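SEQUENCE-TO-STRUCTURE ENTRY
===========================
Question of interest: how does this chain fold, as expressed in backbone structure tokens?
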Amino acid sequence: MRRIRMGVSVVASVVLAVSLVVRAQPGQNNNDGRAIFRFDTYGDEQLWTNTLRMQEPIATVSPAIALSVGLKVDVDALPTNIVQALAAGQVNVNDPAVTLQLLNLNAVVGVIGKVTGNARTLQTVGITCALCHSTVDNSLAKGIGHRLDGWPNRDLNVGAIVALSPALPDNLKAEFNKWGPGRYDPRHHIFDGTSIIPINTPSLPVEIPPAYGLQGVGFETYTADGPISYWNSYVGVTQMGGHGSFSDSRIGVTVTQNPDRVTPELPALLAYQLSLPAPAPPAGSFDPAAAARGKDVFDGVGRCSTCHIAPTYTDVLSGPDPKVPFLHTAVAVGMDPGYANRTATRMYRTSPLKGIWQHPPYFHDGSAADLMAVVNHYDTLFELGLSPQQKADLVAFLKSL
């Protein structure tokens, strides 16, 4: 069957219409939190286009390469004939022109590109929250499917993508290339609207966390530096490069830009993120009888519920003042203190467990490859003396959450 180039011959009659529909979705320019999460760059083209010049390498990247570094394609943003062509293997995924068409259709999750000249020239590029905190269900092909907002994109190699920038020095590219898939270091540098400023070295990347199941958690990051809107502000301004303002004297970071395009969006963004439930475990993914026994271990000899308090399965709000997070030192939980020492609290939060089955590896640094490794870590640290059967049952319970 003839392979086609997804260009003018295929989509000329639909690109403009679909592009206009996607870019003008209801609420995209008001306080619709989902539209903000998916499509608002906050003006971060000032980083990705003006400073990093990412439009230059992206214009030469094929869909196959983009998918290989973890970028995802939203099948619902594609016209029916393109979906059919993809399913039939008729689209040349090695053609960079196809990448531009996908950007023109707003189909690359978390990446917003302005394409002109009959979809042949990429003028600007920016990113949204969905880049790191959404994936797809692979319903059409690996990396192509329906959006799963809030799911951490553990395939996304942010470091390798940024290292494509023609504006970065070789040593910084080498640092970013060390991160690997699903990892990012939000304490390595900041962007002040003009320049990338290093704040800590060497880099200590952490696992991209889920943005689902946060209702009632209160402090949603590994070190609980602040509630979710604090973190959205920090990331939106200093990491994504949005045109806005952020200040925290505890970490010595202040960025001021007017107008502030980030802060006004935070309430709606918060509401949407808190509406995202943790995904239920897939059918048949755990043994219910073993999980029932594992709950007894969790609440009993395993002492897990001491810190992982239901229903949120964290103790971060268990202190006397709910505005102050209850935290643990690195030594107390057997963690490397390096990343915490670069944060405002210098301690770690007890991670909530809902949906934990979905996002291995575990701990902030990914040092536990699977849930058994997590159980073994605490069995050794706290000298619990769990039997192999108790450990297996405990893993089954964790998979059931």
